[in-house]
Amino acid sequence: MDPSARRRFLAPLALAQFICSFAGSNMNVMINDISEDLDTTVTGVQVTITLFLLIMAVLMIPCSKLTDRWGRKRCFTAGLILYGVGALLSAVSPGLGILILGNSVFEGVGTALLIPPVYILTTLAFKDLTSRARAFGVISGLGGIGAAAGPLIGGVITSAISWRAAFVFQALVIALIVLLSRRVTDPIPADPHRPFDTAGAILSAVGMFCVVFGILQADNDALLMAVFLVAGAALLVWFFLYIRARERQGREALLSTALFRNRTSNLALVTQNLQWLILMGTSFVVAVFLQTVRGYDAIETGVIFTAATLGVLVSSLAAERFARRRAQRTLIAAGFVMAIVGVGLLLALVGASSRAIAFGPGLLVIGLGLGVMLTPSVNVVQSSFPEEQQGEISGLSRSVSNLGSSFGTAIAGTILISDLGSGNTSYVVAMAVLGVLALVGLAAALQLPARSAEPATAG
Question: How far apart are CA 320 and CA 323, in angstroms?
Answer without folding.
Answer: 5
